Amino acid sequence: MIRLQVRTSAHAELIDITGEVQDVVRQSGVQQGVCHVFVPHTTAGVTLNENCDPTVAEDILMALDKVVPWRAGYRHAEGNAAAHVKASLMGNSLTVFIRGGSLALGTWQGIFLAEFDGPRQRQVWVKIVSG
Ligand code: ZN
Q1: CATH code for the structural domain at 2-130
Q2: Per-residue pLDDT tens over the stretch 1-33
């Protein structure tokens, strides 16, 4: 397993980590298999979506803010309940097939680390399985 370090720079942001994950795939030398991506945090997640037009990521963040406002009478004493809820909505892991030594992503797809309580130092764990 490879542990990628990602420094986030905003309170909430989607950071395109496709290139970093692709580097792990290349360095593994695996031609066919699966790439597991796992985020070991409770206020950050990981998601696949369009990384061509950056306004898509902005719209996702805006929509999440509407669905899960920062203040809404939450009980969690740390004060970041919205970040926990958003992280669960995004999910903490995903799997991408490896084909021909590269991530087999759709034309417009990219892998995003979803930060909801930054800025912080985050980790993304990547496991490559041949087969
Ligand atoms: Zn908390």
Answers
A1: 2.60.120.460
A2: 999 999 999 999 999 999 999 999 999 999 999
Distance 94 CA to ligand 1 centre (A): 23
- Distance (Å) of CA 47 to CA 68, 77, 95: 17, 27, 10
Q: Residue 96 Cα, ligand 1 centroid: separation in angstroms?
A: 29
Q: Tell how far the Cα of 82 is from the centroid of ligand 1, in angstroms.
A: 9
For the entire predicted model, the pTM comes to 0.96
Handedness of CA 128, 111, 38, 119 (dihedral sign): positive
Break the chain into its structural domains and give their ranges: 2-130
From ligand 1's centre to the CA of 103, what distance in Å?
33
Structural contact between residues 43 and 116, judged by C-beta atoms closer than 8 angstroms: yes
Q: How far does residue 75's CA lie from ligand 1's centre (Å)?
A: 10
- List, for residues 54-104, the tens digit of each pLDDT value: 999 999 999 999 999 999 999 999 999 999 999 999 999 999 999 999 999
